[in-house]
Write a structure and sequence with these properties.
The structure is a single chain. The protein is mainly α. It has one domain. It contains 6 helices and no strands. Helix 5 crosses helix 6. The mean pLDDT is 75.
Length: 126
Amino acid sequence: MEDLETIGVLEYITVGNFLVDLKKKFSEGDNKTMKVAELKKVEWRSRTIEKFIQKFRRATRGSRYKERLLVEKFKRGMNGVIRRKLIEVERPSRSTEQWYERATNLDQHWKESRKNGEKLRERREI
């Protein structure tokens, strides 16, 4: 404080302004850390692909991850069967939006084929 007084320049008029700015600067780091931790926890589990994507998008807001890293995080949280199928394609997607779209389409096809398989089994039993 003495240095500030001798120079004659005060950046903050009140202690309250200083504390608000200090809290803002330090909470940005905490927010980033929380976003990283939240993103690591997002997994598909038994929820629908739409809910998984929605939760993933929510977790990525404010994380400041670059696109390539977001794709890697998205792949890690996905259902293993769908992830393998998406990785095995000839030209894998590079953007998260493409991954969202392809994962949604593949999940829908997978569900349809499972339903059709169940119908076939039911017919065989009759």
